[in-house]
Amino acid sequence: MDLALWITAGLLAAVFLIAGANKVFIPYEKLARMPGAGWANDFSARFVKGLGTVEILGAIGLVLPASVGIAPVLVPLAAVGLAIIMAGAAVVSFRRGEKLHAVLNLIYLAMALFVAWGRFGPESFG
């Protein structure tokens, strides 16, 4: 179980690190024109950059605290935070009629909830 949680957290961290970096470092106008990023037109550039920053911090929070043994309780908290973001992303995708993206967001949501459940419960770092 511990290995499954580490693998899931690592995969999520990679996904959110890449997604967050794209939001932070790609100019808003260019990001909004990219395939699958039409949702960005519904939000301000400032919101998108802030969301990217939060995603990067969440990605770091999924792996760094446990790997260095400092404040490992941050791992499930980061997972809960990212789950909330993915719930919102799924709602936006459904409202925009982007069913494939909504399903992908729900998969990431389930993965984040799995990490949160596992690290708060049976495989906590306590």
From TrEMBL:
User: How does this chain sit within the bilayer?
Assistant: Multi-pass membrane protein
Q: Which InterPro entries match?
A: DoxX
Alphabetical UniProt keywords? Membrane, Transmembrane, Transmembrane helix
Any Gene Ontology CC annotation: membrane
**Superkingdom of the organism of origin:** Bacteria
From the Swiss-Prot or TrEMBL record, state where the protein is found: Membrane
| Transmembrane residue ranges | 6-26, 47-68, 74-94, 101-120
What protein is this chain from? DoxX family protein
Organism of derivation: Mycetocola zhujimingii
